[in-house]
Amino acid sequence: MSMKFSVQTSVLPELTVEQVVKKLSQHGYDGVEWRLHEAYHIHPSEVLKKAGDIKRLVEDHGLEVSCLMGFAPLEDISTQEQIAHACAIMGCPRYRPGAVLYDGTQNYHDLYQRTVDRLGKVIEITSQYRVKPLIETHFNTLAPSASLAYRLVQNFDPSHIGINYDPANLIIEGWEAPQMGLELIGPYLDYVHAKNTSWVFENGSWQWKFTAMDRGQVNWSKIMQILKKIGYNGYISLENFYKVPMRVRGYVGEDLSQREESYRDIDERLEEDLAFLKKCLNSPF
Q1: Domain encompassing residue 198
Q2: Phi and psi (nearest 5°) for 147?
Q3: For 110-157, how does the pLDDT look when each residue is reduced to its tens digit (9 = 90+)?
Q4: What is the CATH classification number for the domain harbouring 259?
Q5: Nearest 10 degrees: CA dihedral of 208, 214, 218, 223?
Q6: For residues 117 and 120, what is the distance between their CA atoms, to the nearest angstrom?
Q7: Strand partners, 134
Q8: Quick one: pLDDT at residue 253?
Q9: Regions of the chain where pLDDT drops below 50
Q10: What does the alpha-carbon distance between residue 283 and residue 33 come to, in Å, rounded to a whole number?
Q11: pTM (predicted TM-score)
């Protein structure tokens, strides 16, 4: 068994649901990670109703639903259950709930305990559907690093919850030695996001920016070899926002628009990004 590749559909804002699966199938991907959002691609209030149709559409194109990327807060148990139920119908074993922000207005220890309690209540529901909620390593959240994500999930059985490891997010906040972080996560590693970022000094201050996969601060050849070393056989899901015409805000409200003079062609970016990851998988760093 080898790693599989999908695309997080936030990076395909120009396409409809039907166009997304057609493009991914044409370019040789294994799965699709659907964005659940009012703007696109699947409205959160409609995901359960449309789950059967989406499953058939995806399977008709030789794909799997690798993940559902949601934004619903942990305390919204009703929506968590709807998404978990939709995952079960689609044959998707995981989804990402909304972020737990850390902005300094609440003491970390209090926020941590409240989050663990809420995760426990979510898992009581999602485990009935055999679906895992994922904690993503993401800046400005309670889990900006591998170790802090692990601190949240270690309270639970790894068959019931997982970590979505995103090394490019760790460049922005939470960087740790990749192999150490992945070894710590251990059986909780359930999903990986692939993009790249860099810090640049502009207009008198340091700012982070999306970059091409081969030009950012994440050494993807090294990451892929470490994933191989620890025996990871799950999904690598491309979330490459570089030169994509985004006009929305992201997981923690970050501005994803880049205001470029020109953007990357859809077919070129799907082909080039997948080829890059496969090259990294087969090349020593």
Answers
A1: 4-281
A2: -70, -35
A3: 999 999 999 999 999 999 999 999 999 999 999 999 999 999 999 999
A4: 3.20.20.150
A5: 160
A6: 5
A7: 162
A8: 84
A9: none
A10: 26
A11: 0.97
CA distance 170 to 218: 9
- Rounded distance, CA 163 to CA 279, Å? 25
Return the biggest CA–CA distance within the chain. 52
DSSP assignment string, 183-242: HHHGGGEEEEEE--EEEEEETTEEEEEE--TTTSSS-HHHHHHHHHHTT--SEEEE---T
* 274 C-beta neighbours (distance < 10 Å), count: 20
Instruction: Check: CB of residue 43 under 8 Å from CB of residue 51.
Output: no
CA 224 centroid distance within chain: 16
For 132, the 3-state DSSP assignment is strand
pLDDT of residue 285: 60
Cα distances (angstroms) measured from residue 137 to each of 101, 102, 223: 12, 13, 15
Q: How many domains does the chain have?
A: 1
4: amino acid identity, one letter: K
Q: How many residues does the chain have?
A: 285
Residue type, 11: V
- 214 phi and psi angles, rounded to 5 deg: -95, 10
Block residue for tokens 């070129």 = 268
What is the predicted pLDDT for the residue at 156?
Answer: 98
DSSP string, 49-116: HHHHHHHHHHHHTT-EEEEEE----TT-HHHHHHHHHHHHHHT--EEE----B--SSS-HHHHHHHHH
Structure tokens at 36: 């659940």
For 39-50, how does the pLDDT look when each residue is reduced to its tens digit (9 = 90+)? 999 999 999 999
CA torsion 189-181-241-131 (nearest 10°) is 20
Torsional sign, CA 144, 176, 226, 112: negative
